[in-house]
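Notes from the pairing session

We agreed to fold both candidates in a single pass and log them together. This is the raw record for the first candidate, unedited. Please don't reformat it; downstream parsing expects exactly this layout.

Candidate A
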Amino acid sequence: MTQLDWQIDDHWRTRWEWLYDDHKSRTESTGFDVQYRAEAGHVLNLGYRWQLEGFEPAEDLEDTRTYDLEEFSASFAYKAMNRLDLIGGVRYDNTNDRMLEQLAGVQWNDCCYGLQLVWREWIDDEGTANTIEDDTTDRGLFLRFVFKGLGGVGGETGDFFASAVPGYRGTDLDRR
């Protein structure tokens, strides 16, 4: 396993990962990411992933992926105003010519309350890696409303924002 991180300057960074099996003399996976982070809090991420057929070991040998996996991804966070953040992202399966995930979200933060709203559509592989025939598309609209100092209603979308957009640092809605 080789991983190379390079902080080019205050705004740009890259990461390259490479997994090579020296016993089989082959590359099993590789990935490349580039990230731009502005001082104002804006973030842009672009990524590429490739995995060899059957690389992800399954407990059931009949459930081994039978194709190489090639994915592209992009995500962003944009601080539109002092209190308003916008996020978005996509993950595309180039091997099977389909969108794996797409999302859009907004966060509003005021002195007394906070609001996070996320729309997301994703592929659920139903636990079978060897075929895409039984995959289903799920979608949802997720809302979190917080009264500062009193608690909130809804799921923990804040952690989701940070995982969906690497480098995103939103306003802590639980803090007054």
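Candidate B (folded immediately after A)
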Amino acid sequence: MNKNSMEDVILTKKHEPLPEMLSSDLGGHGGSHAYLIHEFVDSVNRERLPRINVWQAVRYCAPGFVAHESALKDGELLKIPDWGTPPN
């Protein structure tokens, strides 16, 4: 495929239905915001960790921060910290 061609994408992942208040305005990023909000509120109500939690978020972001710091230090090899695992 090149940048001038298009191809249909078949989405197979099913999402939990959103509450009516959220489904009427899906917001930005193709509607992802409403699903993130719903997931977070549902996790609080059910007293569980959200599917995307702070431990995952720091694992996603830390390599970029460390890479930037490495670049500022002329490419010095730096260790990416591990903030542990979430509680069960």
